[in-house]
Amino acid sequence: MDIEGGGGGGDAARNQQQHQGLVVVTKKRRKMETLVMAYRTLGVVFGGLVTSPLYVYPSMPITSPTEEDYLGIYSIMFWTLTLIGVVKYTSIALRADDHGEGGTFALYSLLCRKLSIGILPSKRGVESASSFSNSALHEHDENKTWLGKFFERNLVARRVLLFIAMLGTCMLIGDGILTPAISVLSAMQGVAVPFPSVSKSLVETLSALVLVVLFLLQKFGTSRVSFMFSPIMGAWTVCTPMVGIYSIMRHYPGIFKALSPYYILHLFWRKGKEGWLLLGGTVLCITGSEALFADLGHFNRSSIQIAFLFTIYPSLVLTYAGQTAYLIKNPNDHEDGFYKFIPKTIYWPIFVISTLAAIVASQSLISATFSVIKQSVVLDYFPRVKVVHTSSNKEGEVYSPEVNYILMVLCVAVILIFGDGKDIGNAFGVVVSLVMLITTVLLTLVMIMIWRTPPWLVALYFIIFFTVEGVYVSAVLTKVSEGGWIPFAISLILAIIMFGWFYGRQRKMDYELTHKVDMERLKSLLSEPGVQRVPALCFFYTNIQDGLTPVVGHYIKNMKSLHKVTIFTTLRYLLVPKVAPHERIVVNKLGLKGVYGCVIQYGYADSLNLEGEDFVNQVTDCLRGHIQSYSGNPQEAQEEISSFEEAKLAGVVHIRGKTRFYVGKNCTWFDRIMLAFYEVMHSNCRSALPALGVRPPQRIEVGMLYEA
Predict the structure, then answer these.
(1) Rounded CA separation 587/600 (Å)
(2) What domains can be seen in the chain, in order of their start residue?
């Protein structure tokens, strides 16, 4: 016994050692994966940040600059990078993810999920269906803060919050147009430094060609593109700070005394209004920070933090220091502040790297734009476009062909029409500052209502960042007439599209809820003379869950039939990033023979990966399990299962309503305009059914007019 006991103890010790060894190996593997991910992150997330030295100084309205002016400017850029880049985004904003997703819509979603403040129809539809559950939605805090209760009671406040989130989204999409334009154009302008005879039109044409090639590469996906781009960004983040160190040692070794905030105060004291206007250029040093947050769905938090804190941040600090050191000795070269501080012996290698880095910079906002558009589509705020998932293991990596080519056309148009880098820089500054300010407001609400951060910390955060970013906004708004109107025009067009689509969908939802068909009405319709139950399995799509779409009554009245097994199916996109696999398909019996309900639940970061027959099989498997679990009579359960199996063999059809608004004479002019605009968009957008891989011969569309 003692020997056996000793042997058992030895086995236990060995098992424990093996377990500890496995844990160590797993930790090492995770660290290695994080480091690899951090390296790949360089190729996508930080594009706008790392290429900002190309266009910050040229965008500044400097007249007769002095040494003290440049020291003050560098101090502003250093503290902007530190406060906004390190403290706000890397340390705070990345922790406000919504199940791994970032950006303004994710912050809004986080607030809606934790509190009952959403006004989305998809959210309301889910809450009204008590028979269906989703654990992701039941996260509401019972002990709500006073601010949370205020938003729940005040519809106007909830609409203002939604407007802020939509504005941030529109601005970020506008950023996706301006970042590629200014990054590539600023890089290509380096051709004209050694060759002054190179014309402006040639630089613009080369920039446009580079952008066209970049957009054509998008279909290969973020993972492949980032793997290819990471070496470029690695070279950029090593070369430019080395040039910066050389410039510091040669021109102005004491540059780092400018880290003292004294030089900021001294600049504003001496320059007054002129110093305030300089902020319109210095704000560009932090451009791309919102993409850092919005691209969170493509990369994990740790990899972004490691890449920024240990690579991007020190690289930018040294590069800007080197540029400033050069400009202190050559004060009138700020128009070409980047390329002129490059030593002639390495000019062309740096030019090639900077051009390639500018291409990568464009990628960060392009991928963020794809993510934001997808979120908007699945939340029913944007007309349906094709969304392709380019990675099998990262559902956040998406690509939209229509959006890609529209962005390409707009980027090329911005370069060819507004070829002056200063005009594009002014527009860029407006976008950057406004998006940062919106993120600050939403983050403050998250800190108060969800994190329950101590009030003094919330006040400290809000006062510092709202003041800094508010001052930046006030400075860039003076540039509205000098190109700053471009993002407002883009955002206005996008906002009209989003509002028009949302308004039309909301009116349809209201009509369907008012004229819905309940179970008693369905039973009455099926009992009318001449109505037949025909063979086949039918998926009848409805937008509401606590009843059936009016199209059902319209169909039965006119066709005088309903299939023997009919599954009323709702595709429900929820205000959560992802829905657990076991909760995606929820089925139940609706009280009539052969009539069932089914809800397909998806979050905005989920992939709708049900294809054709797989979709049918998964739903019928769930239905079979439901019948077996809840039926008290095994024989009746078997008969019911056999019935829908026979219907499935007879054929499968998918029926959806093709509804339009009938605008009568009593409608207001506002309804006439908005509903007509919605109908134009609805007629030209993609159908919801092809996302499920339903073959055209199996699809039936039932037309019906909804009276506005």
Answers:
(1) 9
(2) 42-378+399-501 (1.20.1740.10), 515-707 (no CATH)
